[in-house]
């Protein structure tokens, strides 16, 4: 799983630039007003074939402003969220970036007083920055690349912040009800 081609841009100005260029590409390929002729329809059809699944467009959610990853089996690019949610649903949990055992430890640390203090009277959440999830993974000495990959899996199962990992994603990640 670690050897897939991923293009992630973190700098917000570069993201804007990239998304702007993709927008230009869309405008060029799919002009809003053009005269419908047999020929132009044929061109549009061809453009769709080129565009959909290219690095500019996710064929699953249609977004043009996401970081992308290449699915070599299909020969198409997908956004990370779609790619991993499709993959998570089709992958044997034994092949995930963290082992079952590591996931169990991770969830326990995340739920503990070090993390979200789940079930404590003052529980907390680091939001979509995944402050406590990242801290737990750091404690476990999981590399940043693997963390990134694992958190996309968490999102794929409805864990869009620290506490949602515990509430939504945990049973899917574990394959059973969590015990914290
Ligand atoms: Zn997508
Ligand atoms: Zn939360």
Report on this model:
The protein is 50% helix and 6% strand. It folds into 2 domains: 6-90, no CATH class; 93-174, no CATH class. The chain has a 3-stranded antiparallel β-sheet with strand order 1-2-3. It is mostly helical and 180 residues long. The chain has helices at residues 12-29, 38-51, 80-90, 100-111, 131-139, 144-156, 162-174; strands at 6-7, 68-71, 76-79. Helix 4 (100-111) packs antiparallel against helix 7 (162-174). The mean pLDDT is 88. It has 7 helices and 3 strands, in the order βααββααααα. The relative contact order is 0.11. A hairpin with a 4-residue loop joins strand 2 (68-71) and strand 3 (76-79). One zinc ion is lined by residues 58, 60-61, 63, 78-79, 81-82.
Order of helices and strands: EHHEEHHHHH
- Between the first and last Cα atoms, what is the distance in angstroms? 29 Å
Class by SSE composition: mainly alpha
Number of strands: 3
| Physical arrangement of strands within the biggest beta sheet | 1-2-3
Keywords:
single chain; 180 residues; mainly alpha; 7 helices; 50% helix; 6% strand; binds zinc ion
SSE topology:
Blueprint: E1 6-7, H1 12-29, H2 38-51, E2 68-71, E3 76-79, H3 80-90, H4 100-111, H5 131-139, H6 144-156, H7 162-174
Antiparallel strand pairs: 1-2, 2-3
Helix pairs in contact: 3-6, 4-5, 4-7, 6-7
The protein binds zinc ion (2 copies).
